[in-house]
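User: quick one, sequence for these tokens?
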């Protein structure tokens, strides 16, 4: 039975590859570098938008990070209203609350100012605003959003999700204790701003988790079966930068140039995975987040080494190439040695940045349930190098039980 399922999954991946590689995914107009957020009002003005919903969270508003942009918008003759009700792992209720503000204030554009949760929430607010006949649950899955969003401007304040350039949003459904994805060409932001000044105050653990999130995007899109020259190039850019700069920024968060580098790495990884997709790391991480509220970047960081070990024999050459890109050896070394070095480097980075190898919240009695949901998402949804069944997924999860 498992052999038959594997064959069917691979046939699905072939069909998926045929379709995905023919999608023309939009690329946002990029504003990049120190102070680049100051260029955003002029870009917004060119779209004809006059009243904006600025979507963010209370942590960001308490720091006053959006204040300069709000004043610049006002000076440029545009009004804005702040919705800061986004939670980590944004919920359907968050989206509906933001939609109400958008409609009540008669907004005609949206700024996502924050991390991945904020950007996901902003995308879905926009989708609901222009597709009022569809609920968030109706949009679950792929390409169910018919109408274009209002102009959407993404200003990430972390370097991890790459959501500023992706066609995906992830939503939490607390009623079912689950997370699900929405994918559509319509939810790619029109503009993305990579301003390292907005990231200088990030705590070290957030820097670590978001950086490993970006690394996971780059690696999973690189070792999967939908890789293209475009995704390959962007994954390699991201891995090189993250290997060179992430631990340094973890130690010294005030380095503007390296913060800028990591923001660009996250963007490149986003360009890659929105076209080549991800894998079991994300499938498991989504379910750890949905069930326990584990932050997505942290979950990815914990799970990544386990999945690389599981998949190694079927993606050895790809991991070896990434090892060379990351400065861990050269082409004279064997693929086996290079692949092992790559995986060890990921584990070493986690150790150096105090990322645990176990999930504190994980319970033995939940493992079967988590594995079932993860594989429901991953098979055949993700073009993974090595297919996984229920018992294999449960065995991997048991390695993550707290000790």
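Assistant:
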């Amino acid at each position: 039975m498992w052999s038959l399922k594997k064959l069917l999954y691979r046939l699905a991946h072939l069909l998926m590859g045929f379709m995905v590689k023919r999608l023309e995914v939009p690329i946002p107009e990029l504003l990049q570098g120190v102070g680049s957020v100051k260029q955003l009002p002029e870009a917004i003005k060119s779209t004809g938008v006059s009243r904006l919903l600025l979507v963010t969270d209370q942590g960001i508003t308490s720091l006053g990070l959006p204040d300069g942009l709000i004043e610049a918008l006002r000076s440029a003759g545009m009004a804005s209203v702040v919705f800061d009700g986004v939670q980590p792992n944004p919920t359907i209720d968050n989206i509906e609350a933001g939609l109400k503000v958008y409609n009540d204030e008669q907004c005609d554009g949206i700024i996502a100012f924050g991390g991945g949760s904020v950007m996901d929430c902003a995308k879905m607010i926009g989708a609901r605003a222009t597709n009022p006949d569809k609920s968030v649950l109706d949009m679950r899955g792929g390409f169910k959003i018919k109408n274009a969003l209002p102009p959407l401007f993404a200003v990430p304040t972390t370097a991890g999700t790459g959501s500023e350039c992706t066609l995906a949003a992830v939503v939490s459904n607390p009623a079912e204790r689950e997370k699900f994805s929405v994918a559509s060409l319509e939810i790619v932001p029109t503009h993305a701003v990579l301003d390292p000044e907005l990231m200088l105050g990030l705590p070290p653990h957030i820097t670590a988790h978001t950086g490993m999130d970006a690394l996971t995007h780059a690696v999973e899109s690189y070792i999967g079966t939908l890789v293209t020259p475009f995704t390959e190039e962007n994954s390699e850019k991201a891995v090189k930068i993250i290997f060179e700069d992430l631990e340094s920024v973890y130690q010294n968060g005030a380095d503007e140039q390296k913060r800028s580098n990591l923001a660009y790495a996250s963007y490149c990884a986003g360009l890659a995975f929105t076209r080549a997709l991800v894998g079991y790391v994300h499938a498991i991480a989504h379910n750890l987040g949905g069930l326990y509220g584990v932050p997505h970047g942290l979950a990815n960081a914990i799970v990544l080494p386990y999945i690389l070990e599981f998949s190694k024999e079927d993606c050895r050459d790809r991991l070896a190439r990434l090892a060379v890109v990351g400065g861990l050896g050269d082409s004279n070394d064997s693929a086996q040695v290079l692949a092992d070095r790559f995986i060890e480097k990921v584990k070493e980075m986690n150790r150096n940045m105090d990322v645990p190898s176990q999930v504190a919240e994980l319970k033995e009695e939940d493992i079967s349930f988590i594995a079932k949901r993860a594989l429901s998402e991953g098979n055949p949804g993700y073009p993974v190098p090595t297919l996984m069944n229920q018992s294999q997924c449960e065995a991997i999860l048991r390695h993550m039980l707290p000790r």
